[in-house]
Amino acid sequence: MTADEMLKGIRQALKEEYDLLPSISKVDVEGPTIVFYCKDFTAFVENAGLVRELAKKFRKRILLRPDPSLRLEERKAEEEIRRIVPAEAEIRSLEFNEELGEVIIEAVKPGMVVGKEGVIFREILGKTGWAPRVVRAPPIRSTFVDHLYRSLRADLETRRSVLRKIGRRIYRGRASKQEWVRVTFLGGSREVGRSAVLLQTPESRILLDCGVNVASEEKAYPYMDVPEADLRQIEAVVLSHAHLDHSGFVFSLFRYGYEGPVYCTPPTRDLVLLLGSDYLKVCEEQGREPPFGRDEMRAFLTHCITLNYGEVTDISPDVKITFHNAGHILGSCVTHLHIGEGLHNLVYAGDIKFEKTRLFLPAARIFPRVETLIMESTYGGPEDAHPPRDQAEAELIQTTNSTLERGGKVIIPVFSVGRSQEIMLVFADAYQKGLFEGKVYLDGMIWDATCVHALYPEYLNPEIREQILSEDSNPFRAPIFERVEGPDHRQAVIKSDEPCVILSTSGMMTGGPVLEYFKHLAENERNSLIFVGYQAEGSLGSRIQKGCPEVPMPEPGGRIRGVKVKLQVKTIEGFSGHSDRSHLINWVKRMRPKPSRVICCHGEESKCLSLASAIHRILSVETRAPYNLETIRLR
Ligand code: ZN
């Protein structure tokens, strides 16, 4: 069945079973979504459950779009919307999009624009003929987020034609009667970095993650030059989360001819763009040729299709995906892939945390069906046991306070996404309890990343969500935090006598402003350097962590200077966004249903092997720890 035949079938059902055809002028596809162009919304306004019922019947995502003939003139529509929406929603702006027949309503409380069970949403639709798209007004402003919002609203015409093409491809119908499933590991197996797994069926080639290894030059990119990774034949890329080792190669795909969709959660999309622009900046600073540019970032945005947790979505004629919480960083997901009509169910886990943290709930563990699980092994070794979180937090505050007391500064290298917000929350909490006083400077992209967190409270655990939504208790706005505005400000922080804390990127000291702080503060023993995250083999962070007494650092003008490491170096385990060995095993143990095969990747070789053998022993399931380029047949 082709897309046109499918649409014909839907039209027929709308006519014969629902008598809706007189009110629907056109049915079309945009990406995985079926769009109904309506001439009359009465049926939908009167029956709140109708869209849900149709979505269930056709097993597709459904979007209503008003027929242009219905639309009120913009000024009148705006008056009407302001009358319908309660004032407490605090509408910040209204923007009409002629092309899509949409009105973008930015409000402080978006839930109140939608109303209970969408009642206000439907009233707007029915009375104005414009389809509302409700977005949350950013609680903390950042130029990155403002720019992102503008980009999302630009060039919708191109985006729509891209989505129609993608939709026709998804619903092209099955061509083969054969049934088999296999996965090929293109990177990130028996190593950390450049994660990429190619899923193949007779109908589909789907790339799960597409990362880079920032700590290695020879092993920087996944093996995209093998014949089965032909970019013209890959029809979808699915990203588990925004960290560069899972998403850093996605822009480059568009440089080498990829034209298909990229599926991820909305926060992952935003963070991928944020980390992408940071990566470009670091390359520029280091005089390296970046593997992508602004054009590829724009192409990514045009081809990106966002899905929230729990939305079942067709991405090819024989693959449906659903995202679930992974507990690792904002927007991170465990992807459930339903292949064929019940042929095979694969769960691809990316990175996970199976514990509640200050930001997230533990990773999901219940799925409709699971035969194969692909999981990470970062801390899968027998020695890998994280201390409890509260112990780590106490140690951080204690080390910080004693450094400040002796008049020193504390440098904490962090990834801009994830660790920095967790650490910020630890300081905000200690400040509130009177256990910490002082300035915490935020440098690199940390501020922008924090703003993205504040945009998506529904992706955070209930407590922090509540705090962010209430104006005066947003911990990210605590007075201890100050953003470093640029090189002059940075030098002022370095030179001042004021003891302080500096949170700065990059997390493994492979680049970014943290190097500037380190260079100037390393030779003073009053200062401290605290590692709170994973330091990959070969990174500067890892060398310092292992006790290297002197490190060469570039000076302006290209000269190299040996910097003596005299400051106190400390590693505090327990802040990781990953689960340790016992939690990883526990997650598989508690997964329902129990998977019959577990594939361990994303870890140093010994850890992948050790975790695979432990899971085999404890749970008596088949386990594997594949090599890069190895293919495993699942069905
Ligand atoms: Zn990660």
Provide key terms for this protein:
21% strand; GMP Synthetase, Chain A, domain 3; 4 domains; binds zinc ion; Metallo-beta-lactamase, Chain A; 21 helices; seven-stranded mixed beta sheet; 635 residues; alpha/beta; single chain
Protein architecture, described:
The chain has 21 helices and 28 strands. The longest helix is centred in the middle third of the chain and has 21 residues. A hairpin with a 4-residue loop joins strand 4 and strand 5. The chain is α/β, with parallel strands linked by helices and 635 residues long. It has 4 domains: 66 residues, GMP Synthetase, Chain A, domain 3; 63 residues, GMP Synthetase, Chain A, domain 3 (2-Layer Sandwich), CATH 3.30.300.20; 226 residues, Metallo-beta-lactamase, Chain A (4-Layer Sandwich), CATH 3.60.15; 183 residues, 3-Layer(aba) Sandwich (Rossmann fold), CATH 3.40.50.10890. A 7-stranded mixed β-sheet has the order 12-11-10-9-8-7-28. The structure holds zinc ion (ZN). The site of zinc ion has 5 residues, from loops.
